[in-house]
Design a protein that fits this description.
DUF423 domain-containing protein, 126 residues, 4 helices, 80% helix, DUF423, mainly alpha, transmembrane helix
């Protein structure tokens, strides 16, 4: 089993479910500012899903250094969840304090991208 590919696929599935649900169920219930937050969260969620899926495919193909790629994937998954899901939760509940987690998710995403760049420095082919 390839856990990175699985996580990427599940993130992608959730991004479509949440994006479609938001369009049909949430948009009418929130103001324009909150709606922009939700759409930003969906975009970051979708980008995270695509990148993690690509990392999973690369790992399945034997890309090296696998440890660095796995580490980058872990931070990208965590950052995507912290960033996007804190915004989703705040929009659904009206508890703005839930967005206090959002910057932590953003920093975690940045660190994930930095780790991916670090992994790229050590990529080799068999």
């Amino acid at each position: 089993m390839n856990p990175v590919l699985l996580l990427g696929a599940l993130l992608g599935l959730l991004s479509v479910i949440i994006g479609a649900s938001a369009e049909h169920l949430i948009q009418q219930r929130v103001d324009d500012e909150v709606w922009r937050w939700v759409m930003t969260a969906v975009r970051y969620h979708q980008v995270g899903a695509v990148v993690v899926t690509a990392l999973g495919l690369g790992l399945a193909a034997g890309a090296r250094p696998a440890r660095r790629l796995n580490l980058a994937a872990g931070f990208l998954v965590a950052g995507t969840v912290l960033f996007s899901f804190s915004i989703y939760a705040a929009a659904l509940t009206g508890i703005d304090e839930l967005t206090y987690v959002t910057p932590l998710g953003g920093v975690t995403l940045m660190f994930g991208w930095l780790l991916l760049a670090w992994a790229a420095l050590g990529v080799t082919r068999d």
